[in-house]
Write a structure and sequence with these properties.
By secondary structure, this protein is of the alpha/beta class. The protein has 9 helices and 12 strands. A hairpin with a 2-residue loop joins strand 4 and strand 5.
Length: 266
């Protein structure tokens, strides 16, 4: 039996804003069934790369392959059945309930000959349960805490039933407790077989929760691999102009950053 193709393969990818090259000749393979975190300093191209993977940004050159097929050749409906995207600043119409929002995840599976079904309702109920939102399903989104609201958006992507989920800084506006809620939910989704690719601002959180790390600076790949194998003081200095020491997390074996200080070389 032939091996299953990688979720994404990126070949010599260039993504530009006008004349400015934001992603410059990137080559990358995303592993199957893992949580991949894209990290790096502000302006390094993390969100632009995610836009390229979701076809929101057209490459200047190079190719993106999604599950063995060239991304640009897929129909919009086929793409929506393969990947779910949660942008950094998601917004919904006023007065929408949690249940209403999550139902939107079923749109790629609807057509004039296939209307709302018992299967759709079951998928929505399962998504609500997966995100721990059973007691909040009828609540308006505006009544939820930040962490609850973000879990509702992620539940919408769960209901889309795609094998791949793309998230742009899903915890950036959340306090520590709500960040943990979201990261734990994503961890459970990976255990159930989803492939998740997310842009993460905090390197310590990325190390703790990611199976695979993609480190970028100035639109180029600096390092990739398991956090415990690629994160070193030298990498932190190269990415952020910060000196640090690393200690091992006693619970996960992943690296923790300690003794942070601005590099004298910066």
């Amino acid at each position: 039996m032939a091996p299953e193709p990688a979720p994404y393969v990126v070949e010599d990818l260039v993504l530009s804003h006008g004349r400015l090259r934001v992603i410059d000749g990137l080559n990358l393979t995303i592993p199957q069934g893992q949580l991949t975190a894209i990290v790096g300093p502000n302006g390094c191209g993390k969100s632009t790369l995610l836009a390229g993977l979701s076809r929101l940004h057209t490459p200047t050159q190079g190719k993106v392959w999604l599950q063995g097929q060239e991304l640009k050749r897929l129909s919009a409906r086929d793409l929506a059945r393969r990947i779910a995207l949660l942008p950094q600043e998601a917004s919904a119409p006023e007065g929408l309930s949690v249940n209403d929002l999550i139902r939107f995840g079923r749109q790629p599976h609807q057509s004039w000959y296939r209307q709302w079904s018992e299967e759709d309702q079951a998928v929505v109920a399962q998504a609500i349960a997966s995100a721990g939102l059973q007691t909040l399903a009828e609540r308006g989104l505006e009544t939820l805490s930040g962490g609850q609201r973000q879990r509702a958006w992620i539940a919408m992507t769960i209901a889309q039933q795609t094998p791949i989920i793309l998230l742009d800084e899903p915890t950036s506006a959340l306090d520590l407790g709500h960040q943990l809620e979201v990261f734990e939910l994503l961890h459970r989704l990976v255990l159930k077989g989803r492939t998740i690719i997310m842009v993460v601002h905090d390197l310590t959180s990325a190390c703790r929760y990611a199976d695979h790390l993609v480190a970028m600076r100035d639109g180029k790949l600096v390092a990739e691999g398991k956090p415990q194998e690629v994160v070193t003081p030298a990498l932190v200095r190269r990415l952020y102009d910060v000196d640090c020491s690393l200690v091992e997390d006693p619970l996960t074996g992943k690296p923790l950053l300690a003794g942070l200080r601005r590099s004298e070389q910066s």
